[in-house]
Each structure stands twice: as structure tokens, then as C-alpha cells.
Amino acid sequence: MIRITSFRKVALDVFITLICWIYYTLGFIIIFAPAYIFCTLFKQNKGLSYQRLNYHFYRTFFHLLAFLTPKLKIIFKGGLENIRSSIIVSNHLSYLDPLLLISIYKRHKTIVKDKFFNIPIFGFVLKRSGYIPSTSKGKLAYLTIHQMEYLQEFFSEGGNLFIFPEGTRFSNNVDSSFYQGAFKIAKRYNIPIKVISIQNTDVFFPPGKLLFNTGAVDSITVVMLGTIYPDLSGKDTSVSELMEQAQHILNSREDT
């Protein structure tokens, strides 16, 4: 009985994972690629157009995932979907995390590891979407500088920039100096910092695994934990203080 149950569990994991990644690859090529080409040729604001397409692409991905896994609920709490013109700081548990946030916000940017910009097609989409490389050095330095120049306009139009420090501790992050730059941006433009917590994505799609663990959890939850204002009541808060506040909020969630 245990062997049969285990076999059915693995078979279901394989089936759901396969369907989702078929959508992720063939769905992109057949359904979304023509739309990306159209935006490239005819849309004036290509970054905004690509961000909206990414939003719809990943939103459909998670709708499909929820449909195939009826017991799984994807829950947003704390007014998360209403966040605008903010820097969003989140813990990072799984490869699903950035996809999940993209599926929430039509107008968004994120910091992406520079190696992904070298992947054919995928790297092109990242550049066109206005995503920012996680390094300000080397051959992608021009792209980082270019994206930074338009951030004030981006925030004024309601855009959100989200970042994923390693785990919840900024000091352990290999790109900590660059992530510190995101807090400098918050301070420079007086942009609120929204601290959020993602839960259970690592259980559903464990790091280093190929298959979704479909029966492991009943919900994937994204919670807005708190807001940090860089210029509250005229107080000149330092960048390090902003980072410490964000880390404290995230760690407080871990301890509960």
C-alpha cells in the first residue's frame, strides 16, 4: 500500500511538473513570443509592454499550477496586491519566488543575476523588460547604468522594484554591495520599502529538485509584513539603518 501510494505521488508530481514546464516553454514560443515580437517592432514603451507580458505569462503559469493541484491555494495577505511605487524586499526560498512576484505586478523591475542575461532569448527578454543586472561591473555595466537613469520615472508611474537578498540576512549575500544600492535608491527618491515574506515555495519546489512536491503543502502564501519610510518625520535614516530595519522585520517573521 505504501509503495502504491508513493508511486502515485511521484507520478502526480511528474505529470504536474511536466505540464507546467511544457506551458513554460511551448506556451512561451507559441502564445507569447509573437506578442513579444510585436512589442519589439511596434510599441514605443517596450519595457512597460514586456513587463505586462511577463505579468500575464507568469500569472497564467500559477493559474495552471493551481488548477492542476486543487488542494494548493496561493494566498496574498496584507494588501500585497495594492503596493505601488515601492521597493519590495523579500526572502528567497525557491526559483518560484521571482516568478510569483512578477505574476502580481504589471509594472515591475527586479535585480537578476548577471549570468542569466547571457542566455539566448531569455537574456533578450530580461534586457527588454528593464530588469537590472546584479553587478555594476563588466560588460553589463552599461545596462545597469541605463536602467538606473529611468528609475525616478518608473516609480512615478507606479512601478515596483523587488529584490531578493540571500535568505533574510543581507550580510551573507554575495552581492550585498549591490543590494545595498537598492536601499540607496529608496533613500535618494524617498521611496517606501515594503517588506514581504514568501512561505512554502521551497517545500513545493525544493532547491536542487526537478519535480514539484505537489502534496507537501496546502498553500503558498505571500504576506506584507511592514513598511519602512526612508524619510519619516524628517529623520535622516542611513542606508545601513534601513537595511537593519528590513532584516529585523524579516527575521521577526522567521521567529514566529
Keywords:
single chain; 256 residues; alpha/beta; Glycerol-3-phosphate (1)-acyltransferase; 7-stranded mixed sheet; 9 helices; 7 strands; 50% helix; 14% strand
What does this structure look like?
By secondary structure, the chain is α/β, with parallel strands linked by helices. The protein has a single domain, classed as Glycerol-3-phosphate (1)-acyltransferase (3-Layer(aba) Sandwich), CATH 3.40.1130. It is built from 9 helices and 7 strands. Strands 1-7-6-2-5-3-4 form a 7-stranded mixed sheet, sandwiched between helices. Strand 3, helix 4 and strand 4 form a beta-alpha-beta unit. The longest helix has 41 residues.
CATH class division: Alpha Beta
CATH architecture label: 3-Layer(aba) Sandwich
Task: Return the CATH topology.
Answer: Glycerol-3-phosphate (1)-acyltransferase
Can you tell me the residue ranges where pLDDT is under 50 for at least 5 consecutive residues?
Answer: 167-175
What is the typical, i.e. mean, pLDDT?
A: 87
- The total count of strands amounts to 7
- Biggest sheet, strands in spatial order? 1-7-6-2-5-3-4
* Count of DSSP-assigned helices: 9
Rg over alpha carbons: 19 Å
Largest sheet: 7 strands, mixed
Write down the overall geometry.
globular
Number of domains: 1
Instruction: Note the beta-strand portion.
Output: 5-15%
Counting helices, strands and paired strands, the structural category is alpha/beta
Helix content range = 40-55%
Order of helices and strands: HHEEHEHEHHEHEHEH
Q: Give the termini distance in whole angstroms.
A: 37 Å
